[in-house]
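Q: What would this complex look like in 3D?
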Amino acid sequence: MKIKEIFDTMEYGPAPESANAANAFLDKHKRKFQLYIDGKWQTPTSKKYFDSISPSTEEKLALLADADAKDVDKAVSAAKKALPAWAALSGHQRARYLYAIARQIQKHARLFSVLESMDNGKPIRETRDIDIPLVARHFYHHAGWAQLRETELKNYKEIGVVGQIIPWNFPLLMLAWKIAPAIAMGNTVVLKPAEFTSLTALLFAEICDQIGLPKGVVNIITGDGKAGAALVKHKDVNKIAFTGSTEVGKIIRRATAGSGKKLSLELGGKSPFIVFEDADLDSVVEGVVDAIWFNQGQVCCAGSRLLVEESVAEKLYAKIRARMEKLRIGNSLDKGIDMGAIVAPVQLKVIDSLVQQGVKEGCTLWQPSWACPKDGYFYPPSLFTNVAPSSTVAQVEIFGPVLVAMSFRSHKEVIKLANNTRYGLAASVWTENINLALDIAPKIKAGTIWVNCTNVFDAASGFGGYRESGFGREGGREGLFEYLEPLSKGELANQSFYKIKEKKKEEVAATVPSLGIDRTAKMYIGGKQKRPDGGYSMTIKNPSGQYIGEVSKGNRKDIRNAVEAAHGNKKWAGLTGHSKAQILYYLAENLEIRKTEFVNRLVQMTGRVKKEAQAEVEASIDRLFTYAAYADKYDGRVHHTTHKNVTLAMPEALGVMAIVCPDDFPLLGFISTVIPAITMGNNVVVVPSEKYPFSATDLYQVLETSDMPGGTINIVTGNKDELADVLSKHDDVDGIWYFGSKEGSKMVELNAVENMKRTWTNYGKFTDWNNPETSVGEDLLRRASEIKNIWIPYGV
Amino acid sequence: MATKKAKSTTTSEKNKHAHKRNEIIPFDAALFEAININKSAVERRAATITKRRSIKKEWQAAWLLKAISCIDLTTLAGDDTKSNVARLCAKAQAPVRQDLLEALGMANQNLMTGAVCVYHNMIPDAVEALGESQIPIAAVSTGFPAGKIPLKEKLTQIELAVAAGATEIDIVISRNLVLQSKWKELYEEVKACREACGEAHMKTILATGEIPTYTKVAKASWVSMMAGSDFIKTSTGKESVNATIGVSLVMIRCIREYEELTGLKVGFKPAGGIRKAKDALNWLILMKEELGHDWLQPDLFRFGASSLLADIERQLEHFVTGRYSASYRHPVA
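A: Here is my prediction, written as structure tokens for the whole assembly.
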């Protein structure tokens, strides 16, 4: 074009980034890649390969090996073989490897950026300025954690062989999020990249080679879902970490249920982007661009639901439309574009059909006047207004550049709208009022809250969701625990620690109570003693088969009522740590007063000797003190993240938790599980020991006299696994702890899949609840909470 | 006076996107009271906006030529004399070597800088040096750079500068009024200046380096526009912090909203510290992205700069020859 013409039109021209170095890398491998197993490139057993396509040009980039179960087995064996030596290295030695990886990524940053952009279709600007710098940052950060593990996390050890499955939207970044913490903590890894975008993972394998990472520590296998499935099911894999769709996440959860494999899932989202009327609207517009047109909207935490205060809604929509008109879309390697291509035709089709659905349902679609390029898989930025929460496009994750906008009237309403979703990954809150921002942030069920910013990431901050967005955190200190287990976990036993001796007849006779006034153990729901819905009771006998009394036989309606009572209690979670502590101390005080009664009850139910029963009651009181002490001390952190940003990492209650108590330790087992859960602010529905329920039912009066708000602890007695079945299937229960049989554990984990509740089960094993090393402390508090990161930028 | 009038006409003829001149509109605090700028979000946009666009090859050459047409070629030094002002005027009329213009296909385009900008005393020298040229003469006025003189004197300065032949007056505002949020007083001051300017176009310098918050920069921008400024300008070049992308973003977003409200287009002039061709491209990108094509023309966009042109000339030669250029190869001002 002539300079004179450009001088008049002042149009933009093409600004292509060179693909030469990336092509040279592909050519060096003859555009055909093998599997990276045990530090070697190995041909796939099937001898099959598949194409890797560039989404913005539709050209074939390379052939990738199609791994099957046999290849997975080889890779897992290599990881298993490498594990002992890798785990035995000092933290410093592992830190050196991670540091070297970070440096290598920086040194080859542009090659990685270009290759990623070609392979995924995302703009080179994003890979160059965001993805790849974050990758290097992640390895640096975790080099530090490798160095510090022995001092900062000395009560923990590695898990073992970790299987990792990552998505195509941030290929290398997701690899970094998975591999860096895993190997820093001493685990070895088999990673499967997404079949659409494996190339940078293969370049990463070269770097592992380059720095002399011990063979088998990192294995990269390319392939489709069948390789992933084989990895998930492999018996020698101790943990699965997955990022991807909720649908696949649920399949993995089902496949691993009952296996004892540790699991972290980072799944979909429909994250709210909330704008209050006092927000800086021009800045909000740029926030929206970062929220939904970053990476073509193919971002799990994309701010895809715009919620705007009614007073500024139309004004903001107009500004957004004007901004959309100026977005540029094109070849991913053009340095002057805002948006690149959608990853594959199949995804393009999904986006298009959901948009059509939105139009059909009467939502108003707006797209810019310009047209997308013809070659490649492009979709224009799209805005839906006139959307109701019931619209499909407001409910379903579109995973494309489609924003749905709704207005709200009040603060109360916006919280309701924001939380009106099965997901809970992230949210963005825009207001110039810090009081408002910090009031809203904890009320939104999401793992990350960005105040006046969005889609900001840093290795020092944990990322992850609630509800069907999955569980676990990646990044920061909180993310490390996904790759660690407590040193004491090995003490889980096949036999109960609760020793009950066979007794002689005369000894037994002494423990049977004399006939006093007949007592009725009801259930405890919403702070009141309630008769069972079904009107049945269960007879409880001591181990020698003698009658002790009856407890109510709870059924599914009692569980329903208990869960509703738990949700109805807004008081407990809102108390300060100090107030919670006071109530827990008061509980201990009242238990102490009635110590003799509780000791006798234990003797009566279990036939244990008095001394042991006394020890159990005393340990229970001690434990109440412990958690009362923690109540105002187990707190969050302020993470060192980006420049001029306070990132608050706050432990938050899961919500309503179900606790199915162990059968042994009727009192101490109850206290040891229920109290940490409520200490974190959860309200709980408890199924006490089925065999020895009276220690729990005797607690009603203690709870009533201790100022415990009604609905904090709800107790339903009855058949353990029947009640656990209802609780684990209840979609308004956010977490469940189950201590029972192996089969029961599997059932709970399977039932939990639908709403992705957090589970903790014992797989039929036993904990020594009397041993403080294994049964008290921060590990339980962590299980009863999730870390929420709130990002607050500042500056005048 | 006749000369001045002729010049104004040619100035607007020269600009293809001639637009209705801004007017004095009634003071209405409600239009800006609720403004609350989030600085960190603005800085994030400022840090990324120029990375979202890349101007290469002939596009870069064309854009740099456009930048030249928007430069207020400036000398504001205590030791300015007739001779260096004359040199400046000569450079303004022939900013790029003829052989380069020919190679770029721009030889017959009458490429000139947007204006020359001088102190009040130097206006007659500039008038003489420019002769019949179409280049406007801008003069800094109103007690530039600090503005710490009585309003009456400011107005007298403006009238004298206009009488001496300046067709553009760069005024400075009283920063104390901004710091004390005396918006009505600020409005009255700027309005008086605009009235004193008459036909001459007025560029209002906010001296943003001395304004503590972006929110106040935005409010001062609104007040200045309501009071009839033809341009709002970031800096005198004498503050410790000059034009930044961030502060420019705040000001041009006000310009955009003012136009939406009134239909009137106000120009923008970043000044101070803009020395590199790359900076010039960044500002042009900013204007195109946030305001649009109309603000890529000298009637609505100017750079206040003294050394920018020299770097652009070198980049243009590099485009033509493929060799990195040296500054001595280009005639100085």
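A: To summarize the key features: Chain A has three domains: 20-51+60-267+480-486, 271-464, 492-633+653-764. The radius of gyration of chain A is 28 Å.
Q: Very helpful, thank you.
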